[in-house]
Amino acid sequence: MLKIANLSLLILFPVAWFAPLLRAGLLPFFSLDEITVISGLQALWEKDVFLALLVTFLALVAPMAKVIGTALIQFNLLAPSVKPVLSVLGRLAMADVFLIAIYIVAAKGIGVGRLETGWGLYLFTACVLGSYAITLLDKTRVPAQST
Q: Is 143 within a domain?
């Protein structure tokens, strides 16, 4: 069951990246602009390339690398001794920090107007929590190191 859940993240994470996290608008009567993980990163790439590179790694690359590494361990294609590396990737996969940053930027950037949450926000949050849960529930043992 954990294998299927983990593999589903390979599909669900990219869907969540393109799904609307928020809809923001300046005035209540005009259409709202959709904000996605990808559109947020695109805006960041236009403003600060170094920060965009860092956030791209932390929000996209690290979580996917962790999911792929976990899948390889689950299917016995990678040694369980790599789990500490995946643990570090999990800590670097700061998608939750990215979510908080989006909330803050959206709230501060729109002084007058309205903000609506999109279904992508819930999907993205579920992917992050699912990844954490899979890591906690995975019982694959790391072999004891010999001294």
A: no
DSSP 117: E
Among the listed residues 4, 3, 38, the one whose alpha carbon sits nearest the alpha carbon of residue 20:
38
Other C-beta atoms lying within 10 Å of the C-beta of residue 45: 14
Distance CA 65, CA 77 (A): 14
Structural domain for 75, as ranges: 2-137
- Check whether 13 has a pLDDT greater than 90: yes
**Report field, pTM of the whole predicted structure over 0.70:** yes
Q: From residue 58, how far is each of 73, 99, 102 by CA, in Å?
A: 22, 12, 14
Report how far residue 34's alpha carbon sits from residue 20's, in angstroms, rounded to the nearest whole number: 6
